[in-house]
Amino acid sequence: MGRSRVFSKQRFPVGIVPSSYSKYKKLKMNSSDKMIELEEGWKVMVAGITKLELIIEGQFVGKFSSEEYMNLYTLVYNMSTQKPPHDYAAQLYERFNDSIRDYITRMVLPSLREKHDVFFLRDLVTRWSNHNIMVRWLSRFFFYLDRFFTARRGLPVLSEVGRTCFLDLVYNEIKDRAKDAIIDLIDQERQGEQIDRALVKKTLSMFIDLKVELELYVNDFEAPMLRNTTTYYARKASNHILMDSFPDYMLMAEECWNSEKDRVSHYLHSSSEPKLLESYSPWSSEQKTQHELLFLNADQLLQKEHSGLRLLLRDGQVEHLSRMYRLFSRITKGLDPAVVIFKEYVTADGMALVKEAEELASHKKVENKDIVGLQEQVFITKVIELHGKYLSYINDFFMGDIIFHKALKEAFEVFCNKEVAGISSAEILATVCDHLLKKGGGSGKLSDEAIEETLEKIVSLLAYFHDKDVFAEFSRKKLARRLLSDRSINDEHEMSLLSKLKQQFGGQFTSKMEGMVTDMILARDKQAEFENYLSDNTQKYQGTDISVTVLTTGFWPTYKFPDFNVPSELIDCMNIFSKFYGSKTSHRRLTWIFSLGTCNVIGRFDPRSTEMQLSTYQAATLLLFNKSRRLSFSDIMSHLNLPVEEVTKMLHSLSCSKYKILIKEPSTKTISQTDVFEFNSKFTDKMKRIKVPLPHVEDKKKVIEDVDKDRRYTVDAALVRIMKTRKILGHQELVIECVQMLNKMFKPDIKVIKKRIEDLIQREFLERDKENSTTYRYVA
Amino acid sequence: MRRSSTRKTGPPNSAASVNSSAVDLFRSASSKAVIKELERIDQLFNSYANRSSGVIDPEGIEALCSDVEVEHTDVRILMLAWKMKAEKQGYFTLDEWRRGLKALRADTINKVKKALPELEKEVRRPSNFLDFYSYAFRYCLTEEKQKTIDIESICLLLDLLLGSQFCTQVDFLIQFLKTQNDYKVVNMDQWMGFLRFCNEISFPDLNNYDPELAWPLILDNFVEWMREKQC
Prior knowledge:
The structure holds 2 protein chains of 2 kinds.
Chain A: H1 5-9, H2 21-26, H3 38-57, H4 66-81, H5 89-113, H6 117-141, H7 143-153, H8 158-190, H9 197-210, H10 215-241, H11 246-266, H12 272-276, H13 290-294, H14 298-302, H15 309-315, H16 318-328, H17 336-361, H18 374-396, H19 402-416, H20 425-437, H21 448-462, H22 468-484, H23 491-505, H24 507-536, H25 538-541, H26 568-584, E1 598-604, E2 609-615, H27 616-624, E3 630-632, H28 633-640, H29 644-655, E4 662-665, E5 676-679, E6 689-691, H30 700-726, E7 728-730, H31 731-742, H32 750-762, E8 766-768, E9 775-778
Parallel strand pairs in A: 2-6
Antiparallel strand pairs in A: 1-2, 3-5, 4-5, 7-9, 8-9
Chain B: H1 2-8, H2 21-48, H3 58-68, H4 75-84, H5 94-104, H6 109-124, H7 126-139, E1 148-150, H8 151-162, H9 167-179, E2 185-187, H10 188-200, H11 217-230
Antiparallel strand pairs in B: 1-2
Helix pairs in contact in B: 2-5, 4-5, 4-6, 7-10, 8-9
């Protein structure tokens, strides 16, 4: 037998470092010595165990010396490795178990039984700690068993044995008492008292460590604790809900939230956090988090008359609204009732604006009924403001949550699509836009950024309107006026608006208008070219003073061009331009729109000459008086070859409005077809240059008609496109797809779609399926 | 004679001659009888036909009707036309005549008269009725490119075809069609819709009618009108 073979092969238990090997040499292998009998050896063990107990109990100050430890260890070793029948490993194993149980039964249980509440917990914690120490030391003494015996026999290791002892004898007896005591402490803490948190934490660590995967913790502590929490908070909720104001209640809820969170971090296991705080519903729908309990009656809180959500919204209460969002967002679907109220509130606010505008509009004069007046425009401005206000609420208070954005959208869609005083809001919006972009429209005081911002807001508001194509059509008409009479403030703003619209609603929305703006730029260039052309040939073209704007037909609104008798003075100029234009381009046909032109005419009146800026029709009318001083209505009409309405309008502007360039007989306020007109040679004005305006009446009905007609074509095209791709489609799916496709431009009426489908069936683009009458087939 | 009786049980509207030797066989066997039959059919045709045009015109049809003791507005005449697959309203050509009478197994006017009840039963069978119903519409299209029929005529047709089977629906429908202004004519799709409506929708409660489905708009309007009346 080698000298130090035993020890060099062994590994010493952690913590014990031999001071020198020589000591251990004294402990010899026993194989040649006499056998140690069980009881004999056991006596020595008992002595060691007893000493251990005394140390634990605090009645022995000191510890085991490494020699003592080694003796015990070696003893176990020897007794286990002796030749049978003296190999006592099994017995030692059993006695290991028994010793622990004995100690527990003798010392631990009695002590625990006579204590209560906090003292009980304290003792328990101590006992648990002691137990662990004991088991640790004993395991060291008996360590050899773990090396071969337990593994070979498939038995639990020593530490396991120790744990089981405690579990069986102590835990199973005291678990309920422990649980109750802890829950009591938790309740006390909830009431505001200070408790010994460390104690609770230590106790719970016992629950946690005694069995794997938190089985004991979850079942024996956590479940009852959660039930208790349920009761506690259910009561708390019912106590507070009636008396507290909504903000106060929320404050209380938040405090509870924070304190429970605190509790978890300090002494509960982290896995309890979601069950206590956040929403979790996988297993139990009955069990609710403390949070959910407090807000079981969310609706009751939100609807509180003097402090509920509506008032908070009205007053823009930052703190309370933010808190509300914070708290309610922690519950699944917790925000839903709040969102509903928010939507109702915004809708009501918007509808109030509609009503206000309606009231104001009822005072409008009858003849102004169809005109978009100031009050309607103010309505839109207010709607824009409202939008901005609630957007900021959503972003500032509700973290930009998408459900609130959705509610806002739905609310706005309700009142933005109401007619105000019989005028569609899409038209009003177009008018507001027009005012912003035209000279003298009230945007003069605004900076460029302010104008851009307002345009931005208008475009984002447009998203809520169903009849976007109505807006587009009115905008186009107004844009034409602005461009042609040079009343637009700024090309850049025009382009900026168009690009914003394009971004939101696609190129199709703005293609015509973009074309119009481009036309104007090109026309200016063309005019410059023309002027060069004229100056290059001054001989031929002396006296030609004409500026022409060439418009591309498809982009601009359709203008009527009656068979006007062009004054001879103009014809030459027109021909010169036509020749020039023809030389520069090919395959183009020019159609002159005289109703849009202006003319500067010098009127040689007796007092003094005055330069007058007139429309071409007005100029043509006056030129007639070069040939005769007096003309009747019918004379003028036949000379000009214009329809009655035009002639009436024109003569009115020349004889019955601000500048009486013609004298009318009889001098009534309105034009009748029997009137006679005479050149007013005595006319004069303090200005040398005057502008004689021709009032422009927008043909609203035509716009709406055009839009309706376009819509029919658009719906047809959409239906055909869909059916061409799908070949076969059911009625409802077809309708849904059609609506989706057209959404960017307008919201089609289901009846209209149905009618178009029937029309397409009759025109044999589609047919009904023979078997299933609710399905359509594409007819190639 | 026995052979010709088996002929009766074959499909009534099919052309008499099929390229099978069996036909030739009994043709030759009972050919005399068949020829006689065909002759009588042609003779009957000639008794009603217009000398110059060679077809039976409205006058002739009227005479035919009085002989079979049926009003010329009776639906059974329409059924006869259907059997003949007549193309033009108010006229029967020789081919059509032959086709129809052969299918009815009638070569005298009496036999025609006797065949009418059986014909009616046959037409009323659901499988045939659908075909007959759409035939009726097409038959009334007089002009070449005509695709629609005016409301007055539609009302008459409805009564004629569906009046016996669905009298309440038809009554209300006619009332509606006459009072509404949205539609002055009815097309084939809407016409077929009327039949589907009568077959599928419970009346007069209209509980299973869903305007979201593919019913023609004219029926949506009809249902709306009915519901207003019932309030």
